[in-house]
Amino acid sequence: MVRRLWKIGLMVVLAGLLVACGQSDDQAPAGADGGGETMTAGTEAQQEAPRETPTHFRYARGQDLEGWGTYNHSGGVLYDLQRNIIEPLVEYNWDTHDFDPVLAETWDYEGDGRTWVFNLRRGVYFHDGSELTADDVIHSFRRMRDDPDTNQLEAWTDVESITARDDYTVVFNLEVPRPDFLRQIYSYLVTSKTTFDEVGRDEANRKLIGTGPFTFVEWRPGSYFIMDRNDDYWDTSLNSPFERITYRPIIDKSAAIAALEAGEVDLIDFIPSHEIDRLEAREGIEISHVRGDRIWFIGTNPGQSPMDDVRVRRAVQHAIDVDTIIDTVLEGRATRVPQYMSEGTFGYVPDLELYDYDPERARELLEEAGYPDGIHDLDFYAVGWDPSFLSFAQAAQPMLAEAGIHVNIKTPERGVFSDLFTRGEMALFHQARGQVTIAGLRYLRQYFETGVTNRLLYSNPEVDELLIAASSTFDDEERAQLTQDAMRRVYEDSPMMPLLYMDVTYAARDWVDFEPTPDEKLNAYRIKVK
Amino acid sequence: MVRYIARQLLSTIPIVIGITLFVFILMYVAPGDPAQLLAPETATDADIQALREQMGLDRPMAVQYWTFITGLFRGDLGVSFASGEPVMTELLRSFPATLELALVATLMAAVLAFPLGIIAALKRNTAADHTSMTAALFGLSMPNFWLGILLILVFGAMLQWLPISGRITYEVGLQEVTGLLLLDSVLTGNWTAFKDVLAHLLMPAFALAGNAAAAWSRLIRSSMLEVVRSDYIRTAQAKGLSERVVVWKHALRPSLISVVTFMGAQVRNMLGGSIVVERVFSFPGLGLLLMRGVNFRDYFLVLGVVTMFAIVAVLMNLLVDLSYVLIDPRVKYT
User: Fold this and answer.
1) In angstroms, rounded to a whole number, what is the distance separating the alpha carbons of residues A345 and A437?
2) d(CA B314, CA B312)
């Protein structure tokens, strides 16, 4: 009887395994071995180099869409998914650092810069068959303001009204002159008014009708998001080789890497530094890097003691050897950024005298500030999505100690940290801010203009004046000059220590032709086959 | 009996209200502002305040709770801040996934635990007993997320036998009926889908089942050992009854009361433990939903998930109580 029990138990387990393994033979997703077929032979086909051009591209990132609403998302990783299907007016070009036409063909401002006019491309059709007109643009922007679950109210900052001059001309009437208006609206997506009028908001959200190179097929939360190529796409030069793109959310990074190695997906993102070398050595997998646009910085909050003394803030700048941390802890996968905006941008100050690594000078400054025995028991908060964040803080801790600043590293839960951050309650903290190049003045004003946010409790009326003036100056040179003047003063006041831009690393099968951009966006529709 | 069931069901109401009030207060006083957590990086303080007003977060706590509790009785659990979807919709989408996972894990755990426990009891102090109990010790000691990652590495990456994440592959074309995909594939006669869904379930279910199987096998062993020493068992053996009849008919059933009680508690634990396993396998169930809710301080979503867990726990207790009637004819409810 005992033996029979064992046999029954074993049989059940084996049956389960056999059934499951049977499926992986029948059901290999149509990937490297050619598109369209769902019955392919064996798992080996998933690993070998394709004999034909792959027609199905599968990729994975760490997040899923939360819901259907196009105007409910606040950008980030999730924006990418919808961007394949729904398009914006213009898009940022990382090579020229200017904006490229998408649904808007040309644009300009009129008068004193309170009127921005966009001329739409003609002959562009939504997936529902209706033609793109100014009405669709106005409708889309109105949804960003009026949808009950909207998370894109920011599109309307300083916007008084949006009107149509004719069927293909959209006019944004602003409350103040905004030379950087494009930087505000460049990423917002235009959906079809026709479909909305026909089926209402909820249904329209579920249909995901856009003008993009791919059409929406199906979303099963947690499992897959499927898009098929739109063969009637208006930009005939694009030519995606893929008939289908499948996105899978895989939260756990080890699982994502396993999925890539098993051939379940063709591309994954944000590879942790300790896995890069191993993956690079694997046959059939290639790593690509790009310098990111997320600036890491240390906040030395002038509103909180002991950072209310500028000498203490400057001491922090002298205390940390960022280059060494980059070379060792971060394995060289970051770029030092000693100023608030990087070289090549309008906010970069060419001849700025930087605080160099000098622990002796840090000690002197502390003594001048009234801390001859250094500072003790200071909380240093380091919370971020990237595990390297904490590694950086841990590496900085002994350096700060050597300079006389003894800190306790604190890693509260994200919600708790967010509260402290918004209220400016931390004297010393490590943070990051993404998309700083595109945001430009908006990022600088967010941190350095009095009262815009409480994150740094920093206030300098001269800086306020300069930043506000820069924001309404249409002359590029004058704007650059004003911004640089502001940055000089901010740097002297040192409310924040800029550190670096982290590299963004992707791993993909070697036939994937993918050029990453610093903004962490993954435009699947642009991916080609080598 | 019917009165007993009705009384138990009615008692869920004050329990659920108590739990939701407790969780609501906790979430409310915990640091972290949902508007700030949801807002884009470029948001200014003014933007965040506007978002806060739009989300109704500026209303007093009592008003917000009252809105929730009155909505609960209408079946309206509010709207998730993060997704804009009704919480009820999100729950109905995620609950079948976790339920299916828990059921398959329970079945797996039972299939592993019963033979192990019974053999260990019958072959007490032999090699079989020691091996089984050592295996159980391993099972109890292994954290389920660790087991999950190990399974992914071995069966997913190295052997490539099983898929690593999600519930189902698009290409199998399953038509959903109940949301329990295994059941739906049987109902629609889609054998390919059945195999695909099962393949997606095996690893997460095993990760979840590991601890439970280990605990159950030990309990089955000790329960049976106690029963096997009873006089009536010795009488049965003396009467010349076969080993099979003695074990199945006379020894196992009385041992089941404590085992079933424990199993009920373990299945409730699985619902909770699913949070970690779901994250490792990106399995779209209630656990992941709860995590998202907590991370974004999505009050209504968290309350919805907690309410669901509470109701399921109470129903689980009721089922366990009712099962005693089946197991032990001496048990009666009034």
Assistant:
1) 7
2) 5
The SS3 call for residue A157 is coil
| Inter-chain touch B149–A259, beta carbons under 8 Å | no
DSSP A130: P
Strand ranges of the sheet holding A115-120, from the earlier edge strand across to the other edge: A104-110, A115-120, A169-174, A159-166
Whether the Cβ atoms of residue B155 and residue A21 lie closer than 8 Å to each other = no
Are A306 and A378 a contacting pair, CB within 8 Å?
A: yes
Relative to beta strand A267-268, strand A56-61 is parallel
Please give the model's pTM, rounded to 2 decimal places.
Answer: 0.85
Residue B272 has pLDDT above 80, yes or no: no
Quick one: which of B158, B133, B130, B310 has its CA closest to B219?
B133
Per the rule left: phi > 0, alpha: psi between -120 and 50, beta: everything else, A374 is left
Q: How many CB pairs under 8 A join A and B?
A: 228
Q: What is residue A188's DSSP assignment?
A: P
Adjacent-strand bridge partners of A408:
A379
Judged by a CB distance cut-off of 8 A, whether residue B288 touches chain A is yes
Q: Is the pLDDT of residue B177 over 70?
A: yes
The residue assigned the tokens 């030092």 is A336
Nearest chain A Cα distance for residue B242, angstroms: 10
**pLDDT confidence of residue B319:** 84
Residues of chain B neighbouring A261 (CB-CB closer than 8 A) = 157
What's the mean pLDDT when you consider all of chain A?
88
Indicate yes or no: CB of B40 within 8 angstroms of CB of A154. yes
Preceding peptide of A221 cis, ω within 30°: no
Question: Distance (Å, rounded) from C-alpha A79 to C-alpha A74?
Answer: 8
> What pLDDT digit, counting tens, does each position of A66-121 carry?
778 888 877 666 788 899 999 999 999 998 888 999 999 999 999 999 999 999 99
Question: B83 and B305 in contact (C-beta within 8 Å)?
Answer: no
Residue with tokens 């904006």: A99
Does A226 contact chain B (CB < 8 Å)? yes
Integer Cα distance of A158 and A183 in angstroms? 13
Name the phi and psi angles at A36, rounded to 5.
85, -35
Within a 13 Å sphere around the CA of A260, how many CA atoms are in the beta-carbon half? 32
- % chain A with pLDDT above 90: 65
pLDDT at A16: 59
Secondary element (H or E) of residue A107: strand A104-110
Tens digit of each residue's pLDDT (9 = 90 or more) over B31-47: 888 888 877 777 788 88
The secondary structure of residue A459, as a DSSP letter, is -
Residue of B nearest to A47 (CA): B160
Residue of B nearest to A223 (CA): B166
Contact residues, B window 47-106, toward A, CB-based 8 Å cutoff: 47-48, 50-51, 54, 79-80, 82-85, 93-94, 97
Residues of chain A with pLDDT under 50: 23-51
Number of helices (H), then strands (E), in chain A: 17, 21
pLDDT tens-digit series, residues A395-425? 999 999 999 999 999 999 888 888 898 889 9
In sign, the C-alpha dihedral spanning A83, A85, A91, A93 is positive
Strands (E), A355-401: 375-382
Please state, in angstroms and rounded to a whole number, the distance separating the CA atoms of residues B52 and B44.
Answer: 12
